[in-house]
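Request: Not sure, any thoughts?
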Amino acid sequence: MTFKKMNYNFIKIFLFFFLLSSCQTPKYSKVTNFSKSKNILPEVQYSISENFNPNNINCIAIGKIEDNSNPNEYKSLDKVTLIRHAIYGHLSPKNYQDIELHKVAFVMKSSNANQLILKNLDCDALIEGTITEFKNDYYLAYSSTNVGLNLFLKNKNNQVLWKANHTAASRAGSVPFSPIGLATGLFTASSNTEEEIAFQMIDTVVRRILKTLPEKTNVKNKNQLKYTSIPKSKNSKKITKKENSPEVLFASGQYGEAIDLINTNIKSNGNNHELVFLKGRSQLMLNEYENAASTFLDAIAIKIDDNYLNGLGYAYTKLNQLDKALASYNKAISINNKNSYAYFNSGLLLENQGLNRKAADYFYSAGTSSLLVKDFKMANNAYNALQRLSNQESYITKKTKKLKELIAELSVFNDNNFKIVKVNTKVN
């Protein structure tokens, strides 16, 4: 074999691993000190303090994120804001109480010390970090978009409880073995430089890093609901809708027409969040999930509502963006802990991932919260879901039995004798 051919083969092998590393599941390494990764494949390094007990932390706020990346790269993007929002989204499934970003920003303007920030926010810990890298490298028919991030969690005593770092990379292109190969490589490589890829890498690096943050597990609600009868139903007033209203068009299955009419109405009243939400629901019915997700975000920008977040979660589920979906459902629940649909949808998502115990917790909550509003159909759906999992382990069986008892207890009372009594019971 000639030197030229050996060199050629070496380049092919190198490029193979170069491209392969961009699509591989990263290695998660628990370390004492961070160091530059020696692995060809991506690596997430993290460390957890011996003093860190997640169940002692109720609230986590997202503090200052420093930007040490090249300021000349991606000038049009607010890197810090994008990172903070990504952290906020991926922190929700960890079951910690979060503080809305604008509230944290307001407190941080007047307080610099972590202790003061946490005191003013009445919170236990603060996530801070540094953007170490945010760049795109372009080599003829190859390109690489890299986003590097360090994050750490500090308590009120400024002790580091957890820290992690990672660099996510999107690599594209092809080995130019021919003129056609060169053209194809140039096209895919240039596409990899677009801002959308940077957005994806932001989400990826944050998701991977926060995967190493231990989640809070003692989130059982000790104030379980004991139902002694059924609530008296109130006769709701019938609202007459115009024949050509978006609501009527939606109800009759004319989703495209409903969207067209909503778009016309929004031009004159862009702050009508209810109409925007209905547009998103219409898009869901037409299987336009990307459009629906964008529309729900528009509605949430006008008003943060648990139903809007539940719709967003459903759209993300259909798009197979499961982390975002669960974060949206959990945010909906944090706003309204009686949103049975958000609980149920979370349960289905977790069940499909094989996380049956977690799914059971959500199904049980879906059942009890639906009973509060006499939504017996949802209560039975939740029971059936628990029953489907009940053979897995005794923990789930106990929850299934308890929910069955609550539903049965409700069924023997009439509408005239209803009251809800909160009692301190714990389901093991």
Observations:
- Residues 1-23, 173-193, 219-241, 412-428 have pLDDT under 50 and may be disordered.
- The domain at 253-336 is CATH 1.25.40.10 (Serine Threonine Protein Phosphatase 5, Tetratricopeptide repeat).
- The longest strand covers residues 125-139.
